Amino acid sequence: SFLGLGSYRTWSEDTKIQWLTNELHSKRPLIPSKFPCSANVQEVLDVFKMIAELGSEPFGAYVISMTTSASDVLAVRLLQKEAGIAEHLRVVPLFETKEDLENSPGCMELLFKNSWYRSNLSSPPQVPNIGWQPHQEVMLGYSDSAKDAGRLASVWGLHKAQEALVKISKDTGIKLNLFHGRGGSVGRGGGPQYLATLSQPAGSVQGWMRVTVQGEVIDHYFGLPSIASHTMERYTTSVLKATLTPPEPPSSDFRDVMERLSEGSCAQYRHLVYEEPDFIEYFRAATPDFELKGLNLGSRPSKRKQGGIESLRAIPWIFAWTQTRLQLPVWAGVGTALKKEIDDGKLEQLRQMYKDWPFFRSTVELLEMVLCKTSKGIAQYYESLLVPEDLVEISDKVYKELDDTMSSIQQITGNHEFLASSNEASRIAIASRVPLVDPINVLQANVLLRMRHDENHPEMQELRDAFAITVQGVAAGMGWTG
Q: What is each CA distance from 253 to 350, 411, 481, in whole angstroms?
């Protein structure tokens, strides 16, 4: 509006790209020194000015959270140009929701076809330039895509997005480096890294990969020199193996089944979590979501904005369900989708997928690991104390979904015990550790009952301290927070 061109937000994507490209080619400044703007906009401009003063060397990538379009990336490049940054930070789009993952190939294709953008790409100094020029890094968000569509739809969406991005990379000759934004818990893309790397689509691991390691699991993977060495061995071995002997692409039959599973699980997950009118009340009653906000935990606000489940960040969403041992975000929707395939006579095909397709096998095994830590009895104990009777109908739907998931996984693997054939050591470790958490959960549920019964309880501070201790105990027993 300041330039007399109308509102940027109302422009079409093509119009935005054309205007941004023209401004990137232009040698005249766009933003005057005394630019009237809001405090938030001024803060962004000041950040880029600071980068220009310090130089780009102290900084890594500029990651754009919730990227939706090619113009988002070009806008950051234009802001760097306007600030006078001599050597631009590499700009990394982060695709997080199911819809954004589906649109990511089209977004990157638009960028790669843009003459200015393509001619201004370069390989970052920390990555050995072993052939291709130019270079593009793309970050994939595991947390928000799982919260948006459920885990099954999320992992399949991520898999397909990587396949499409790899194809575009080969077609355009632009080296692609994928940055996996995994969380510590399975619900946010965490889990054994070796298994995860080997299940990536062919061509997506090209001698290197970048992953996030959450603060809550750093000690677990790097706490001692011997453990750190073993962790790096697993990373190195898996990357080498995925590069030199990538998995065969799945058959069209396998893809068709996975597509149906993705669509079915997503529909059921969204129906339960977003469309059931009483679910938000059930969530707040059955979990310590509200009480967790009062603790000095986390590096970011629990919500991006005011609202329901859609406004809640992925970490507190997973954290709350982990505390009650229900782990709902990991398996919600999975049972419905698998049961339908089994009822339609596809059990043998699902077993074949589990045997022959590393991606599907890793998906099932991670579900097994979570189900080993899930306790229906503990979750029901929380509900018996904390959930009003008028929300029992929601509870019944939740537990039916859990039962369907457990039954379907057992039929596919052919085992009555989870991880019995795939990872016996983990099964024994979990079985020996998890029961020790039960008393802590019982204490936490009773502390929550007392805290909610009387907000002016004379011992409220002592109750809050006790609650904080139980939160730490449960998180330690489960192996993650959120």
A: 11, 20, 37
Q: Which residues contact 90 (CB under 8 A, 6 or more apart)?
A: 61, 62, 122, 124, 135, 137
Say which residue the tokens 């537990």 belong to: 399
Average pLDDT score over residue span 208-217: 80
pLDDT in tens, 451-482: 999 888 888 899 999 999 999 999 888 876 55
Q: How far is CA 49 from CA 45, 82, 97, 296, in A?
A: 6, 9, 31, 32
> Which comes out higher in pLDDT, residue 242 or 421?
242
Rounded Cα–Cα distance for residues 156 and 258 (Å): 7
Report the chain's mean pLDDT, rounded to a whole number.
87
The mean-pLDDT minimum among 1-10, 143-152, 317-326, 435-444 falls in 1-10
Q: What is the pTM of this model?
A: 0.86
Q: Alpha-carbon torsion 141, 145, 146, 152, what sign?
A: negative
Query: ∠ CA 113-117-122 to the nearest 5 degrees?
Result: 115
HSE-up (13 A, CA, CB side) for residue 429: 9
Q: Which residue, among 185, 183, 188, has the nearest Cα to 214 in the 3D structure?
A: 183
CA distance 76 to 248: 38
CA gap 258, 252 in Å, rounded: 10
